[in-house]
């Protein structure tokens, strides 16, 4: 009897496992945040407080497609193990809860603090669908909510909105930071085809300071989800203005551009009006940084693209976020660039792996991990003394192939997802994406983070970054590298990454 029960149980378990392999649940990333169910877009209000990282996100809890926006909420100690929390903000009579930011109001400038409790304050866009239909052009305005229990519960401010709309159709995604030299809050707001800066002593009264960008950067689409943050290069402070744009990205659709320059509390002065792209792949949108992380600047984006986000074949959820990335600056000749590399916390989920040295590559060389799982963290250091074209092939038993390579003639990296599995849900999905190799360093270096249905490529210390999602029919198991003319690899390291989802 016992034996029969065990075999029935085993059969049931196997059936469940087999069906997870069959169903769209098979695309669930293992160490990237995804909501358990339903629709997600932009990460919002990311903030570090009392040892916990808070992630809020654009969320529609009723369906797998975009709808009336809420702020979903998840918490983590390491930005990898996320625990989904109750929804933080629901739509109300002023509108849907669009993107925004959150700050720790340590000095209680807002007066929301009580009995010594420090308020977390969320600054977000109310998007009013009724006014939108009336085509007044004034349907987006900025509002506040605060929490006195470390993000568990939120109260909307009775004086909302705090920044009414002056007549600009796209007037959204406030990113607020404390500007210590003038002891005031600075809001960076996306206002259609430019950024408008506002300042406030208390988060409630806002005055316009300046505008940037009508004559700078890419304008193939509307400007959204900006961020303004300081980084340091050789002891000098450099301000980074991130401006997400949709469409108009370098590889179609949604993408993030950035400008480097100075900021004096009032005006952002760019060193150059030309766009730099923070990620050349198709799937890192609305990326902004966590607030209250001290000297660290940690970026997280939505790993999708408005071109197909509502059609991707996952179920019962849609969308994942990128891993957290640490931002820095690096000079190439006279030109300064922002770099992004995986936040060091990723090393904390490393499991078994391998390390190989001095590999000559011409015919395909097998780099597949022995455990048959090709998701994980790969580091490849090339000896470019003999550099030529090379191609990495991530594959599976179904014969799907994701190609990641370097084209010497054009000095470009690429990711080609045309044969990567399911691509037919949107006409432009199965494409090859290119990115320039910016580094002039003799040696190419790749850090590659693969997680079931996504790949994040950090080349040359994060000077060139590409993020692409894809939908392989069976789990990734193979990795080979080939080079028609021949290249030399100094070092290859692989670590399996432990699943961080519950
Ligand atoms: C960016 C965006 C934001 C907006 C939000 C709505 O993806 O369009 O500009 O606040 O999504 O969900």
How many domains, as an integer? 2
Question: What's the story with the biggest beta sheet?
Answer: 6 strands, antiparallel
Helix content estimate: under 10%
Q: Which small compounds were modeled alongside the protein?
A: beta-D-fructofuranose
SS class: mainly beta
Task: Please write the CATH class name of the largest domain.
Answer: Mainly Beta
User: What Rg is obtained from the alpha carbons, in whole angstroms?
Assistant: 23 Å
Kindly report the CATH topology of the largest domain: Tachylectin-2, Chain A
Number of helices: 2
End-to-end Cα distance: 33 Å
Low-confidence parts, pLDDT < 50 over ≥5 residues?
Answer: 13-20
Task: Give the amount of beta strand, in percent.
Answer: over 45%
Going by CATH, the homologous superfamily of the largest domain would be Glycosyl hydrolase domain, family 43
Explained architecture:
Helix content is 5%, strand content 48%. By secondary structure, it is mainly beta. The protein folds into two domains: 2-13 and 346-497, Exo-inulinase, domain 1 (Jelly Rolls, Sandwich), CATH 2.60.120; 33-322, Glycosyl hydrolase domain, family 43 (Tachylectin-2, Chain A, 5 Propeller). Strands 23-34-25-30-31-32 form a six-stranded antiparallel beta sheet, with no helix packed on it. Beta-D-fructofuranose binds at residues 41-42, 58, 69, 98-99, 125, 172-173, 224-225, 286.
């Amino acid at each position: 009897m016992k034996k029969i029960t065990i075999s029935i149980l085993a059969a049931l378990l196997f059936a469940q496992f087999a069906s997870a392999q069959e169903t769209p649940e098979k695309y669930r990333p293992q160490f990237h945040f995804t909501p358990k169910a339903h629709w997600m877009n932009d990460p919002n209000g990311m903030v570090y407080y009392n040892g916990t990282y808070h992630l809020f996100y654009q969320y529609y809890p009723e369906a797998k497609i975009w709808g009336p926006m809420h702020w979903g909420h998840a918490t983590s100690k390491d930005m990898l193990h996320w625990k989904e929390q109750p929804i933080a903000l629901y739509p109300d009579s002023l509108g849907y809860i669009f993107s925004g930011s959150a700050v720790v109001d340590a000095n209680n400038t807002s007066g929301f603090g009580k009995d010594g409790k420090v308020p977390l304050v969320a600054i977000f866009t109310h998007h009013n669908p009724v006014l939108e239909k009336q085509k007044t052009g004034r349907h987006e305005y900025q509002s506040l909510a605060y929490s006195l229990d470390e993000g568990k519960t939120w109260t909307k401010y009775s004086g909302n909105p705090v920044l009414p709309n002056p007549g600009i159709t796209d007037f959204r995604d406030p990113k607020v930071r404390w500007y210590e030299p003038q002891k005031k809050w600075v809001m960076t707001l996306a206002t259609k085809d430019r950024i408008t800066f506002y300042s406030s002593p208390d988060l409630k009264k806002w005055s316009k300071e300046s505008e940037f960008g009508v004559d700078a950067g890419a304008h193939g689409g509307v400007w959204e989800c900006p961020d303004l943050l300081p980084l340091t290069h050789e002891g000098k402070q450099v301000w980074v203005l991130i401006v997400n744009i949709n469409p108009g990205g370098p590889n179609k659709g949604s993408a993030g551009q950035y400008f480097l320059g100075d900021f004096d509390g009032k005006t952002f002065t760019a060193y150059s009006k030309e766009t730099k792209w923070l990620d050349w792949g198709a799937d890192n949108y609305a990326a902004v940084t966590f607030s209250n992380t001290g000297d660290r600047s940690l970026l997280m984006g939505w790993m999708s693209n408005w071109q197909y986000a509502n059609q991707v074949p996952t179920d019962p959820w849609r969308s994942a976020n990128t891993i957290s990335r640490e931002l820095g600056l690096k000079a190439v000749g006279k030109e300064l660039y922002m770099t992004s590399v995986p936040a060091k916390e990723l090393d904390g989920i490393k499991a078994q792996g391998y390390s190989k040295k001095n590999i000559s590559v011409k015919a395909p060389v097998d780099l597949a991990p022995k455990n048959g799982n090709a998701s994980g963290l790969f580091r490849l250091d090339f000896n470019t003394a003999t550099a030529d074209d090379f191609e990495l092939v991530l594959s599976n038993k179904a014969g799907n192939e994701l190609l990641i390579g370097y084209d010497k003639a054009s000095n470009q990296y690429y990711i080609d997802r045309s044969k990567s599995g399911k691509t037919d849900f949107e006409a432009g999905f199965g494409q090859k994406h290119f990115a320039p190799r910016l580094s002039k360093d003799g040696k190419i270096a790749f850090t590659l983070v693969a997680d079931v249905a996504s790949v994040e490529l950090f080349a040359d210390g994060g000077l060139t970054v590409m993020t692409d999602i894809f939908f392989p029919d069976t789990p990734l198991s193979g990795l080979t590298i080939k080079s028609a003319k021949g290249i030399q690899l100094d070092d290859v390291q692989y670590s399996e990454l432990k699943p961080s989802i519950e």
